[in-house]
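Hey, quick one: can you model this chain's 3D structure?
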Amino acid sequence: MPIQEDTQKIRPSFIGLIPFIVFIAIYLGAGLYLELSGVKMGFYQVSGPVAAAVGVAVAFLIFKDDLNKKFDDFLAGCGDKNIMIMCIIYLLAGAFAVVSKASGGVEATVNLGLTYIPAPYLAAGLFVIAAFISTSIGTSVGTIVALGPIAIGLAQESGLSLPLVLAAVLGGAMFGDNLSIISDTTIASTRTQEVEMSDKFKINLYIALPASILTIILLLIFGRPESIATMETHDFNFVKTIPYLFVLLLAILGLNVFVVLFCGVILSGIIGIYYDSFSLLGFAKEIYNGFTSMQEIFLLSLLTGGIAFMVTRQGGIAWIISKIEKIIVGKKSAKAGIATLISLIDIAIANNTVSIVIAGEISRRISVRFGVDRRESAVILDVFSCIFQGLLPYGAQMLILLGFANGAVSFLEVLPLLWYQGLLGVFMILYIFSGTYSTWVLKSLERKRKDIPLA
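Sure thing. Here's the predicted structure for all 455 residues.
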């Protein structure tokens, strides 16, 4: 049974929310305490899967269903289609990153960037590149995996602030995750709200574009290295950069993200074998190394998927919804309620696609009841889920990106520099509460598509 249907049938219960609270309290509580105590990488001393496993144990202890029924619910959540899709993307993305690095692709691309991109423009350039890639392939995780090691290498070689570079890459990755028409979040938000992707994209663009332009300006102003290293021509083999260009081209052509990443792995492997970077057997080993590099986020996704389903069954999500519905009195508060709902759910489960699936049906019902354009509710769901997904220390994007830095940067160093996520939130809030802004956007859309009603 789909999760979104459950929220309509189950009695709200705060007790049903306790496993999520335990998971978040352990992970965030321990992380904050250790960070403030001066422990390096404090947020990652207690791994996400371990904290999630404690949440699962609490769910089994406090929920009153038969033990076999609880196991069935947990496994149903772990095996949810959206969870499985993300897990496969993690595996393919990990394989592509590791194989490309082993074949020399990362080093070649770093040297290419150092040769042709002036150091003062690197941070802004990386934001634009990440935005372009993520919009093309529809996944922030895949973008971070492909671009993260390159960005770190560029920062280290050019003398640029590493936290700022990581923030720029993460911001650009979330730009495409939110906006791309092949992104899981776009697909989930438009399907649950029953609207066209093209309409959601156009409204979304009016919000994301000004936020991205301001972010680029800030990166151009503050993204200069403290001491600019001498930029010179570096040796690089252009052939080894082809897998990244090939992946981008396939994505632009509209191929499925699984096909795109799979082809990237194969092409990187062929190039690596040709240049004797590894043998055929070594290629297989590098693929497996890529798989294992994603084991933490893979396990975390499975466990949070299981908890999400159990919590939903026990009325935890329905309890959140019931509280939010009480504050809704009109169209603007309905939009704010949808924004609050999706934000809280994403904070709880750290998976923006699954969050949209959970919140989708109730958001559509709120939109219909209070006269909110469903295209707007689709945008609100996607934008706020991506904002918080790009801020969470236990989100896949942040975990992977900081993992590439190998402990050189902490979450608290990156957080204040996530300008794009903050600006995107500002423009989305302005859209929600400014009747002039939202009306102008909708009228602009209607001038292009007069056959689509406003509600």
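One thing worth noting: DSSP finds 23 helices and no strands in the chain.
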